[in-house]
Structures are given as C-alpha cells and as structure tokens.
Design goal:
mainly alpha; two-stranded antiparallel sheet; 6% strand; 127 residues; Arc Repressor Mutant, subunit A
Length: 127
C-alpha cells in the first residue's frame, strides 16, 4: 500500500510513528473515508514490525473514531481529514507557541500589551 512508513533511525517509538503516519495519510487525503487498510498481519509484514504494534495502533485509531473495523471484512478509514488530527493537538500546539512567544517577549523586554498591539496592527496590514 505504501501509505505509511517507519524510519528505524527515528528515535520516535514505532507505535507513535505508525499512528502519526496513518493520521497524516488521512489528514492529507491519501487515505479517504471508506478506504480499506491492509490487514494487521499484512501491514506488519510490509513494515517489518510486530503485528501486536499494528493491532494496538488500529485499536487506538478505532477508539478515536478514525478507523472502523468490520469483523471478518477489514479495517476502513472512518474519519475525514479534519477529524484525523489527534485530540487536542491544535490546543497543545497553540499553548506551546504562546509559551515560546511569551518567553521571547520577556527575554526582549517587551510588554504583552505591546506584542498584542503589534499582532493586531500586522493582521490589519500595518507594520
């Protein structure tokens, strides 16, 4: 199928790489709602990973609503691209970004109100 790959040099655990890869394939439209995934065994063989790892990822994605497994038939994509993102991922990224901005502003001696005003002016086309 070639929709997801694992990088043995990546320090990220295989489980996390596989989950992230499947979510990304759904989010980018490479996998669409209704598409059938390879069987657990087939994907494990293709990626040269333990079948239990693949089964665990499929189960987690099913609990999250991204996949649907039909007994005796297979696993299918159930989520739309927007639904494929991990829960609360957007909020986590936003909090991390805000933390970096606030730390940089503090380090540069900038007041929060000053930063907010500059953001508003920039958004409205000012400099």
């Amino acid at each position: 199928m070639g929709v997801v790959s694992i990088d043995a040099r990546d320090p990220t655990p295989i489980y996390a790489q596989l989950e992230r890869g499947l979510r990304a394939a759904i989010a980018t439209g490479r996998l669409r709602p209704g598409d059938q995934l390879p069987t657990v065994r087939q994907l494990a063989v293709d990626l040269r990973v333990n079948a239990n790892t693949v089964a665990r990822v499929y189960a987690e994605l099913e609990r999250a609503g991204a996949l649907e497994t039909k007994r005796g038939v297979g696993s299918f994509v159930a989520a739309t691209p927007v639904q494929a993102h991990p829960p609360r991922e957007h909020e986590r990224r936003l909090r991390a970004f805000i933390t970096r901005v606030l730390a940089d502003a503090d380090r540069l001696g900038l007041a929060i109100d000053e930063v907010m005003a500059a953001l508003r002016a920039h958004r409205q086309g000012g400099t």
